[in-house]
Amino acid sequence: MHPTERFDAVVVGARCAGAAAAMLMARKGMRVLALDRGGYGTDTLSTHALMRGAVMLLSRWGVLPRLAEAGTPPIRRTTFHYGAEAIAVDLRPGDGVAALYAPRRTLLDSALVDAAWEAGAEIRHHHTVTALRHDAAGRVAGVVAADGAGHEHVIAASLVVGADGIGSAVARLTGATVQEEARHAATCLYGYFPDLPDTGTHWHYAPGAGAGRIPTNAGRHVVFVSVPQDRFRAELRGDRIDALRRVLRMDFPALAADLGSALPDGDLMAFAGRKGFLRQAAGPGWVLIGDAGYFKDPITAHGITDALRDAALLAEAAVAGSAAAFARFAAVRDDLSLPLLRVTDEIAGYAWTLEQAKALHLDLNRAMKREVAALAAEVVS
Ligand SMILES: Cc1cc2nc3c(=O)[nH]c(=O)nc-3n(C[C@H](O)[C@H](O)[C@H](O)COP(=O)(O)OP(=O)(O)OC[C@H]3O[C@@H](n4cnc5c(N)ncnc54)[C@H](O)[C@@H]3O)c2cc1C
Fold first, then answer.
1. Helix 105-118 vs helix 16-27: angle between axes, to the nearest 10 degrees?
2. Ligand 1 pocket: which of 291, 306, 314, 347 to mutate (most atoms <8 Å of CB)?
3. Ligand 1: distance of its center to the CA of 203 in Å?
4. Residue-range domains of the chain with CATH
């Protein structure tokens, strides 16, 4: 089948990795199409916390004011609770970061899609990529996508970007190898609670469990618990709100007291858990960014930050277009990701004492600082 359209880059998936990459490549003058099987402004699983690197990039890209204008509360204090011990850390302003934020994904992902449109990228929702096209040399050269009415579109592109999340079709269709797999997977339950006092973000740790509360839009807090999959299956099946309250009462009495008898808006959300992985980042004519290439347990709340990071690194490689530029993209992504993947896996294993948890958080902090320094120093978009 002959292609009906031709682009410099086709991006599969238009959330934080894909929409950001489309925006940045379009700003660099590339002709970009992003396709997403979902709808514009829809929700997805997330507890929303953006780390410093994400806020720095959103500020640099001019997207941060849209989140602030939509009433996303600034977060200037983060408190870590190890059992009854609380350690509060105030945000150090700098790098364009005056506060952290935890925007709802309906807001963040659509703000990035809007910015991508404004930059000249084309975004088509309700389009599912089902196959890849290859040239005579076997290089990936475009995609086949089905629209909402079931019509097939064949689109040629010099670069196909897989930004299509954990179950990435682009990773499957290219045969991207798994370079490292994590050992642990935790189950996460969360919901949106009104009327809690805003005292910043709180992360709580107890032997065998994690929990937290994070201020987000519309006066709501995300309240979550995270436990090993086995414990969830053994103790917590059934009514979700009852399960969340039971973990809080057993392991996090201070957070249970904060919550009181507050009821969530709507049903609680559940993520069954999945072991983290680092997949091969790139091959001839294709590249993976965000969760498509690298996923880690949500307990360290760092997936969005790394999705935006990958978009920034990719835009530099895509505009250069050389094999050397993509090899460098892959090397930098691996170098920054592996320490984060490994320390996240240790934390998500829940086999630590509280003193060991503190040490793991110091390791995590070092890996995050290294990433922020790299993003500040690199010539990245
Ligand atoms: C319970 C939970 C809580 C989390 N909390 C946080 C947090 O607090 N902070 C944080 O930073 N991260 C968090 N994360 C991780 C974060 O949600 C992900 O890292 C982030 O969504 C990755 O973005 P992405 O753009 O790579 O992929 P996704 O957000 O998964 O987007 C992929 C897109 O690709 C589209 N797509 C898939 N297949 C196709 C196809 N074949 N054709 C077309 N489109 C396709 C999908 O429709 C989707 O819109 C959490 C994750 C979970 C599960």
1. 20
2. 291
3. 22
4. 2-74+100-182+274-350+359-377 (3.50.50.60), 186-271 (3.30.9.10)
Distance between CA atoms of residues 11 and 16, nearest Å: 12
Q: What is the dihedral of CA 11, 282, 185, 15, to 10 degrees?
A: -20
Query: For residue 183, what are the contacts with CB-CB under 8 A and spacing of at least 6?
Result: 275, 345, 349
Handedness of CA 136, 142, 148, 151 (dihedral sign): negative
Q: What is the CA radius of gyration of the chain?
A: 21
Residue 41, ligand 1, Cβ within 6 A: no
Q: Cα(44) to centroid of ligand 1, in Å? A: 7
Measured in angstroms, how far is the CA atom of residue 17 from the centroid of ligand 1? 8
Strand partners, 190: 224, 269
Please indicate whether residue 304, judged by its CB atom, sits closer than 6 Å to ligand 1.
yes
pLDDT score for 292: 98
Going from the Cα of 299 to the center of ligand 1, the distance in angstroms, rounded, reads 15
Distance between CA 315 and CA 319 in Å, rounded?
6
CB of 142 closer than 6 angstroms to any ligand 1 atom: no
Lookup result for tokens 């997977």: 185
DSSP 163: -
User: Closest ligand 1 atom, CA of 188?
Assistant: 1
Torsion of CA 94, 96, 100, 102, to 10 degrees: -170
Q: pLDDT tens digits for 69-120?
A: 999 999 999 999 999 999 999 999 998 899 999 999 999 999 999 999 999 9
Q: For ligand 1, is residue 17 a contact (CB within 6 Å)?
A: yes
- 220-279 pLDDT tens trace: 999 999 999 999 999 888 899 999 999 999 999 999 999 999 999 999 999 999 999 999
* Any ligand 1 atom below 6 A from CB of 310: no
Cα 270 from Cα 23, distance rounded (Å): 31
Question: Can you spell out the DSSP letters for 41-92?
Answer: T---S------HHHHHHHHHTT-HHHHHHTTPPPB-EEEEEETTEEEEEE--
